[in-house]
Amino acid sequence: MVEGAGVSESQIELKKMNISHTLPTVRDVSKEKLEEIISTITSSVNNGVNMNNMVNIIVLLMEQVKLFKHLRGLEKKQLVIDLLCHIIDVTDAGAFDALDTVLKAMVPNIIDTFVDVEKGKLIFTTKKVKGCFACCFPSK
């Protein structure tokens, strides 16, 4: 296998065996469910977690954790953080592994931003196009 090109099958199996030892403990959420979420995410992350795919992974984790209706908002946020940190630790991003600490530090703010967008606290507006290209962009 080429350095940084992904995780070999034997590495995946070894990491799967070690998953349950480092899983976060969450009230009324089974380890099996957490393992299922992690397995789904890690199988789609061939080259580990990096700057290019981290936001997409956070969105996937938030969608999964949102289904735990019995957890409060801060508990859901902490679970997403814990799961992503776990996934960062068990996947191999090759040369990007040096960024693991930076990626982990970015996660809480990214989650907060997504929550603000979902609650309508952060609204993206578009400016009307003026000038000679206005005819190319129909007004809404």
Task: Jot down its keywords.
mainly alpha, 140 residues, 5 helices
Walk me through the structure.
The protein has 140 residues and is mainly alpha-helical. The chain has one domain (9-136). 55% of the residues lie in helices and 0% in strands. The chain contains five helices and no strands. It is globular, with a radius of gyration of 19 Å. Residues 1-21 have low confidence and may be disordered.
Task: Give the SSE layout.
Elements: H1 9-22, H2 31-44, H3 54-65, H4 73-90, H5 100-118
Helix pairs in contact: 3-4, 3-5, 4-5
Give the helices and strands as they follow along the chain. HHHHH
Structural class call reads mainly alpha
**What gross morphology would you assign?**
globular
Q: Using the CA coordinates, give the radius of gyration.
A: 19 Å
Our count of helices gives 5
Mean pLDDT: 77
Multimeric status of the protein: single chain
How far the N terminus sits from the C terminus, by CA atoms, comes to 52 Å
β-strand amount: under 5%
Low-confidence sequence ranges: 1-21
- How many strands? 0
- Biggest β-sheet strands, sense, barrel: none
